[in-house]
Amino acid sequence: MLKRMRWYLWVLAGFFLAYLAVSIYFMEHFFPGTTVNGANADLLTVRETNSLILSQAEGYELTLLKRGGTEETLTTEQMGMSFSETDNVRKYKNGFLWPRMFWKQDSYQITPDIAFDEDTFDETLENLSCIREGEAPQNARVELTADGYELYPEQQGSKIKKDILKEQVHAAAESLTETLNLEAAGCYEVPAVTVDSAEITELTAKLDRWLGTKVTYEFGPQTEVVDNSVVAPQTEVVDNSVVAGFIRLDGYEASIDEEAVKTWVSELADRRDTYKKARKFNSTLRGVITVSGGNYGWQIDQEAEDAALLASVENGEVVSREPVWSRRGKDWGEDNDIGGTYIEVDMGAQHMWAYKNGSLLIDTDVVTGNISRNYGTPAIVAQIQYKDRNAVLRGADYATPVKYWMPFYGNYGIHDASWRREFGGTVYLTNGSHGCVNTPPSAMKVIFESMDSGTPVVLYY
Questions:
Q1: DSSP SS3 for 139
Q2: Does residue 334 register a pLDDT over 80?
């Protein structure tokens, strides 16, 4: 029994010594089937493996894959690289694990020790075509056009970030990586502003709102419209900013040009105001004549309309309305704003007509202001301010009661004159009124009862 046990011990010791001997061998040799950097390293020693690694490194080249599909290749000499044996080989050797070679093959990536001549490395990078010829990226931008704006997407360009390129090339060379995709490595400068940037999305949202404005001004049957053809009709450069209609664009900042709005409202008023302006009038006896002056007519309140239109554009409103008026007329016609209901006084003929909706209501002789005493009734276009019954007309030397009083301009008005026995003719030259239109009581009653406040009164000689 003891003899058998000794035999087992000798066998076991023999196996152990054999295992130990093989382990010592593989402390300096790779296992069969091992590859290093893709090359066969069967049973190679540390020195032999270093020689293999150095021979591989000497032919190393780094290919830079540039945007657009072009390439540029760097050699070890260009990068100022030098190689030496590395102690890293030994750490991959563990001879005691040799039994695993029967079921597993090892594969390692091992680089030699690498040193760089940084001056050579930097000089080579500076002379790369992608550094010398790179075009800077372009930010996304907005340009105003005749009917709105044009959005130009960002352009990536090909300009390199030198510090990132140096870092990435260094890292690739240190690991003997054969290709470096510059775009994937983040080596290119990128646009600061893209179509998805807040600067663009906020700007285009604002422009879309403003350009969606449609304010339809109503002037009776006539209209004038403020839409994108007015808001952005043309472009010009003013103080380094682009102005299109009402919009001022300075880089990524857009604003409504208040002065442009005021100018447009002023031009609208020039076209549409009739207050104190000359106008054509189809008189009863003389045909078409020109009349002007007085207190009748349409007048836009420009300050209030400036604010109203500015708010409409700011909010992108679609609305139909009248402008804000400081004075209102009664009608909008093709040729005048007097319409078909009015009172006409021909002071040369000393006759008055009242028309209602285009039809003659009444006509009568009258007496107007005394010419000889410089009380002449003004030739103007006015309107009835209000109507009063049983009024007392007062002056410096008189107080005259009347049944019907219809003032049309200051103290000038139309009223009954029961004290007169004669109207028309030349009475007004020497025995006229203090400036009012003296009217026979019966005719005055009809006019008073038929004409409302605001009715136009056209007076001419």
A1: coil
A2: no
